[in-house]
Design brief:
By secondary structure, the chain is of the alpha/beta class. It has 20 helices and eleven strands. Helices cover about 50% and strands about 10% of the residues. The relative contact order is 0.07.
Length: about 500
Amino acid sequence: MAEKRLFPSTPDYAEAWSRTCRRLRAELGEDVYNSWFHRLELDEVDNGVALLSVPTKFLKSWIHSNYTDRILATFCAEAPDITGISVCVRLSSRAMPTRLPGDQFRAAPTVVEPRPSAAPDARRPAPVEPREDVRPGKAKPAQPADFDAIMGSQLDRRLTFANFHVGKSNHFAHAAAMRVAEAPLGEAAIYNPLYIHAAVGLGKTHLLQAIAHAAQEKGHRVIYLTAETFMYRFACALKSQNALAFKDKLRGIDVLVIDDVQFLQGKSIQHEFCHTLNALIDAGRQVVVAADRPPGELESLDERVRSRLMGGLSTDIGPLDEELRLGILRSRIAATRAKQPGFDVPAPVVAYVARAVDSNGRDLEGAVSRLLGRATLTGAPLTVEIAEDAIRDLVRSREPKRVKIEDIQKLVASHYNVSRADILSARRTAVVVRPRQIAMYLSKVLTPRSLPEIGRRFGGRDHTTVLHAVRKIEGLSHTDGSLGEEIELLKRMLMD
C-alpha cells in the first residue's frame, strides 16, 4: 500500500490554532500556559485530525493525561471540522507522519545515509515517539512503563558559589545558602526548609545548584530536581508500579533541592511532595526550595505544602542594582574573552549596558552575546551607539508595568483595612463585598486575565460573579464621584 504523506497545515488552520492558543492562555493563566503549552505546535491537519508535537516526552505524557480534552474542545470551537488531536514528541529533524490502520499515527522512520567520515560506531537517531490519537468518545491508549531509578536533574558546573556575584539585593540569601551548604555531615539542619524566592533571572537557580555542588563535595547524598522532573519521575513510578522505590530513594538522601516549585501540579503529586517534605524535615535532613514568589502566595499548591514551606527560613532575592549588574557583565565578558581572545568591550559600553539592561542576569548574558555578534560579524570596534542598537530588544524601561492579580488583592485589602484572606473568603458582609468587587474590577481592566481565571483567583468563584462585580463597580464609578476617585488612585498606585 502506497505511503500517504501529509501536508503542512493551511493558513486557515494555522490562524485557528493561534486563536486556540490565545484562548488557552486566557482561560488557564500565564503560568500554566507557559509551563505546558508554550512549546506545543501544530504540525499538520489530516482528515480533521490535528497533529501536534512537543519537544519532550514528559510534556507529551502530561498533556495527554491532563489537557487533551480541553485542547480538543477549544480547537473545535475555532475550527469546527477538527474531529480529533494527536500528540507526538518531535525531533530536531522531523519525520513525515504516515497513516496506519485503526486511526493511529506514527512517524515515518528517518533513513540516515552512511557517510565516509562517520565513525564506525556512530549512533543512528532515536525513532520518533508514536503519536497518540485523541477523539471524542475514544479511550486513551495505555502508557508504557518508563521508570528508571530516581536521579536528579543535571547540575551546571559553572553554577557554584565561586561564580556567584553578591550584592545588596542577594547578600542575605547568599549567606543562608552558604550556611546550609557548609553544614557538617550528620548535623541536623538549622534552616529547614530553606526557601528562596525571586523573579526570573535573579540567581535563585544559581544558588540552589551551588548548594548542591558544595553539599556533594562534603560527602552528602544530594538530589537536585526541578518541579517538572519531580512530576515526571513520580508519574513514571506510578505507571511502572515502582512508587515505593521512588519514595525510599528520595527519603534516604541528606539534601533535597527542588527548583521552580510553583509549577508543581496534581493532587497526588503534591501529596507525595508533602509527605517527602515531612519525612526529610522530621528526620533532620536538609530541604532547599526555590520559587518565583513567597510560599504563602503559591495558591496552586495544597495548603499543607504551603504551610510546611512557610515553617522554615524564607528569603528573597531583589532586583539587581547597577553595581551588581556591572560585576555580572564584567564576569560574562571575561568568560567570553577566554573563548574569543579578540573580543573587547570598552568601559563606556559596559557602563551603558549595565545602566540600560536592568531586568535580570539572563538579559545581561544576552547583551554580551549580542555585543559579541556585532564585534565578530562586522569587525568594527564596539561603541555606545552600536551597543544601543544591538541590545535594543533587551531595554524594557519603556514597557508598561505588568500588574498581577495578587498585587491588586493586596493593595485593595490594605486600602480598605481588610485582609487578603477576607477578600478570597466566602464572607458576604458589606465591609468585605465592596473591596472584593473593586479588586475584581481592577483585575479585569488592568490584567489580560479572563473572567473564569479571575474567578479562580478569587477563591474559586464563578465567572458570572466576576462579571456582576465588574458591571456594578463600572456603573458606580460613573455615579459616585468619590468612588471613581478612589479607583483612579488605586490604578495609579498599581501602575507606578
